[in-house]
Amino acid sequence: MGLDEDALEYHRTDPPGKIEISTTKPTNTQRDLSLAYSPGVAAPCTEIDEDETEAYTYTAKGNLVGVVSNGSAVLGLGDIGAQASKPVMEGKGVLFKRFADIDVFDIELDEADPEKLVEAVKMMQPTFGGINLEDIKAPECFTIEERLREEIGIPVFHDDQHGTAIISGAALLNAADIAGKELDDLEIVFSGAGASAIATARFYVSLGCRKENVTMCDSSGIITEARADRGDVNEYKQEFARDVPEGDLADAMEGADVFVGLSIGGLVSQEMVQSMADDPIVFAMANPDPEIGYEEAKAARDDTVIMATGRSDYPNQVNNVLGFPFIFRGALDVRATEINEEMKVACAEALADLARQDVPDAVVKAYGDDPIQYGPDYIIPKPVDPRVLFRVAPSIAEAAMESGAARVEIDLDEYEEELEARLGKSREMMRVVLNKAKSDPKTVALAEGENEKMIRAAYQIQEQGIAMPILIGEESEIRRTAANLGLDFEPQVADPSVGDYEEYADRLHELRQRKGITRTEAGELIERDTNYFGSVMVEQGDADALMTGLSHHYPSALRPPLQVIGTAEDVDYAAGVYLLTFKNRVIFVADATVNQSPDEDVLAEVTKQTGKLARRFNVEPRAALLSYSNFGSVDNENTRKSRRAAKMLQNDPEVDFPVDGEMQADTAVVEDILEGTYGFSELDEPANVLVFPNLESGNIGYKLLQRLGGADAIGPMLVGMDEPVHVLQRGDEVKDIVNLAGVAVVDAQQE
């Protein structure tokens, strides 16, 4: 099937459309229903009647946006009417929810009269926290937005006007920086003079460009004062009429620094690009076909052409989804009365700054694994970059508070944590650990210091104040890679080949001389094997924690720290633990990486260590020893070992959290089973620490939960070591390294 057929099938698959309403509170019992509706619902109604702002407290208003359109200017389809525009408006709702966790009602109004449309939206004001106007033709869209901004007390934003303006504005900030040009010196030419073009020109002036340097062209040519005097252009176009000779687009582009295309495809030739100033900036944003093709524009010049389009199959896509979800997120969260110019500028500046930062692995993978680095082919962030939420929404909220548009003041540090929680429980849990790490950073040795991911992770770890990283490896190679990656930091490096580390070799020989290691062999291991080097570094107290494993199999990476550092004084066995996060639940799974066939002593020890780990995440542990039996329903040696481990833990005075077993997995996690059938259990709530009877079942269990249960996984986290050691998995991303560095620092703080 072609794209059209696929899209039709996508939309008609049951249930039809792309959005639905779901409940956010329990509705299982008669009492639930009496709270949700009559008679309980009268209580919040009364509170809101006394104070209308309480609607933000007791209803979904504060997270609800109305996407309003009359279908008069839909995408590239034109005036198709309200009903036919509904798939687009539903799609807008999908983007709001996917990128910023904002709920949407799409409102398609069969009304062409701007006055009546304004009145309709005004009447809906009590329902929404904000209004996103969409696909309304010019010039009526200007009038509608201006009227609504003046007459209602919630944010109103016409994305077709301002979205492209803001995102291309961010691109302009970086393009000018790369080209070495000042904003107020730029000669800018617009092809197109509709709502988007006029709003974009206005916004560029807000960023620092000069209005007198903007030349705007419509289908009749350059908009001049002479044309304005003749009445050839409407009042909105007149704003950018220039006192210059009349001419066409080719005349306007000669000598220009910037071309901004918001018109139709194919209008610009290579000769027109060649006529521009040195190192031109070309934003050809007509969709689906730009004013000039990407390859054509790049090939037109011998110098640098910084090119952006509206297409996803070329670098530098000007995509409105980088703006409106996050703008509304920040505006809603401070209960803003409007989205003003200061907030729009804050958005553009936040996006521009983000493009200059190191790019997460997940984003790189989404775009084909080719390197993504600040430069002519990367001047705005990618739409799938999760960091956009954390950069833009706080910037919007801060600008709203500073400009007087906010009804409430918020703590921006706490706000970022709230935003993390919106993206999933795993981010919320990691924020707890990372905050602890930042409160008292420790030194973390990164054994595979020449690995590009380790270097990028070290940069982020240091930049965020999580730890003081030490990269172990050849210093010249590490610094060369850091420079090639464009990372602006001075890494601390330990180079075993050039430093004086004889004492490390002596110590390794001392520890392993009765295991067949000679002094010469110890020296060679220290010089050539960064895992042994890092292990001795931590054992000697020159670093607080060790991380390794990116380029090794787990057992070979774990062996050196076990031989050199070993387990804690009161611990005989290390174990690997995964933290699995679901929408409203957190579970620690052990052991999934180390002990193949544990007996009851190992199971008990693993449970104790996992309970301690849970508390580092501010989770009070409730542990279940898992089996295929419930409390003796099957009696054999396999089930007895879990039962005996549970009894050992219950009798251990050092264990101050509830433990029980053996029990089946569903008994451990389903409250109705636990309380209904096994009310005698030590667990009064479902378990959040699940200890599997062997490595095979633990590894299978966590992977099934992750893949089929939709859980996010953090780990493996190594517990039971005498000093903090964490072994990464081959293929882990930079964010995984940063997260485990945070765990390692918190481990070191406990030490």
Q: How many distinct folded domains?
A: 5
Helix content, binned percent: 40-55%
In CATH terms, the superfamily of the largest domain is: NAD(P)-binding Rossmann-like Domain
Strand content: 5-15%
CATH C-level category of the largest domain: Alpha Beta
Beta-strand segment tally: 21
The low-confidence runs, each spanning 5 or more residues with pLDDT under 50, are none
Strand order of the largest sheet: 7-6-5-8-9-10
Overall geometry: globular
Coarse structural class: alpha/beta
**How many H/I helical runs?**
33
CATH-level-2 architecture of the largest domain: 3-Layer(aba) Sandwich
Q: What's the average pLDDT?
A: 92
Round the Cα radius of gyration to an integer and report it.
Answer: 31 Å
> How is the biggest beta sheet arranged?
6 strands, mixed
Task: Compute the separation of the termini in Å.
Answer: 61 Å
Please name the CATH topology of the largest domain: Rossmann fold
Would you kindly provide a written description of the structure presented here, covering whatever features stand out?
It is built from 33 helices and 21 strands. β15 and β16 form a beta hairpin. The protein is globular and about 95 Å long. α6 packs across α16 (324-333), α9 packs across α17 and α20 (412-422) packs antiparallel against α21. It is α/β, with parallel strands linked by helices. The two termini are 61 Å apart. The strands form 4 sheets. Strands 7-6-5-8-9-10 form a 6-stranded mixed β-sheet. The longest helix is centred in the first third of the chain and has 21 residues, at 159-179. The chain has 5 domains: 60-154, Malic enzyme, N-terminal domain (Rossmann fold, 3-Layer(aba) Sandwich), CATH 3.40.50.10380; 162-312, NAD(P)-binding Rossmann-like Domain (Rossmann fold), CATH 3.40.50.720; 321-423, Rossmann fold (3-Layer(aba) Sandwich); 433-565, Rossmann fold, CATH 3.40.50; 575-720, 3-Layer(aba) Sandwich (Rossmann fold), CATH 3.40.50.10750. Keywords: Coiled coil, Metal-binding, Multifunctional enzyme, Oxidoreductase.
